[in-house]
Design goal:
single chain; 224 residues; alpha/beta; TIM Barrel; 8-stranded parallel beta sheet; binds D-xylitol-5-phosphate; binds zinc ion
Length: 224
């Protein structure tokens, strides 16, 4: 993975057909997805449950781009090796998931992955000020995590503050939640480069009507 700040769309397969992940991943990549975003939830840190390491490992051979794994779990550290073994390229942990985000990011990098740190809407940008040198990505949640299809919470001021704090460091700013052609330009202008989108990408399409995924992604890109 080489670093740049070009616009990247990362469809969240939380909005895909759960009985058909392999074909769904191939369909969104065919249609121009830059990364594939995988939402791991534990029914404890967030009030919803999705999938764990064996499922993520099964997705791996279908992902030709970048597998971006977002952990909405607590605790995190005991599972880092399992996600490395599952083939995650980027592993993102929440700053709110435990008292030792610095140790967690070191362990993620130590296991050979890029390290991401996510911020819930109620958490200030300053929470990551002292880990920017050991992070590869900051994920700004623009919904309270747990479910797809929620409405966008405006975090553009936080994105701007992070962009400033990051300076020349090679750290991506990712936006997750409620991204669509209306909200995407706001966060892009504030300094984000990776836009996660679930419902806005998968809406109206299917593996057999994958051009709809392509059209939905194009609408987000054009709006930016
Ligand atoms: C929310 C997840 C998101 C979610 C985004 O807890 O982390 O990745 O799937 O879904 P949309 O784009 O539908 O808000
Ligand atoms: Zn996510």
């Amino acid at each position: 993975m080489t670093f740049d700040r070009s616009l990247k769309i990362a469809p969240s397969i939380l909005s895909a057909d759960f009985a058909n992940f392999g074909a769904e991943i191939r369909a969104i990549e065919d249609q121009g997805a830059d990364w594939v975003h995988v939402d791991v939830m534990d029914g404890h840190f967030v009030p919803n449950l999705t999938f764990g390491p064996p499922a993520v490992k099964a997705f791996r051979p279908h992902v030709k781009t970048v597998m971006d794994v977002h952990l909405m779990i607590s605790p995190v550290d005991a599972y880092i090796d399992a996600y490395a073994d599952a083939g995650a390229d980027i592993l993102t942990a929440h700053v709110e998931a435990g008292p030792h985000i610095h140790r967690t990011l070191q362990a993620i990098r130590g296991a050979g992955m890029k390290a991401g740190v996510a911020l819930n809407p109620g958490t200030p940008a300053e929470a990551v000020a002292h880990v920017l040198d050991i992070a590869d990505l900051v994920c700004v949640m623009t919904v309270n995590p747990g479910f797809g299809g929620q409405s966008f919470i405006d975090m553009t001021a936080k994105v701007r503050a992070l962009r400033e704090m990051i300076g020349d460091r090679e750290v991506h700013i990712e936006i997750d939640g409620g991204v669509d052609p209306t909200t995407a330009p706001l966060v892009r202008a504030a300094g984000a480069d990776v836009l996660v989108a679930g419902s806005a990408v998968f809406r109206g399409g299917s593996v057999d009507a994958r051009h709809v995924y392509g059209r939905n992604m194009a609408a987000i890109r054009e709006a930016c």
